[in-house]
């Protein structure tokens, strides 16, 4: 289960790298506007906030990735702590999204399901 948890956490990290790209580089593009349900005017106004939020997503992905590498190379305690912090924060952010705006439950599900599964599998794998 440990490997399953690391793979799922890795997929979650990749999803968050993609979210970073959308929020930090493609925020005003037509496809991103449709993805986030915004107008071009809304995107222009929120562009600085999205840039900052994008980097938060990137940093969560990096923490998770470093944790995966550490766990895979034998530093299980430190690595698992980083994976749990990174993926757990991804899941927690998805809860904030759905609680603050229930109409965004689809986005929250996309953002939070894989990290949650990764955390659960990792915890089960560590307990075994």
Provide structural commentary.
The protein has five helices and no strands. The protein has one domain. The chain is elongated, with a radius of gyration of 15 Å. Helix 1 (2-24) runs antiparallel to helix 3, helix 3 (40-72) packs antiparallel against helix 4 and helix 4 runs antiparallel to helix 5. 87% of the residues lie in helices and 0% in strands. The protein has 128 residues and is mainly α. The model has no long low-confidence stretch (mean pLDDT 97).
How are the SSEs ordered, and which strands pair?
Elements (H helix, E strand, L loop, with lengths): L1 H23 L5 H7 L3 H33 L3 H25 L4 H23 L1
Helix pairs in contact: 1-3, 1-4, 1-5, 3-4, 4-5
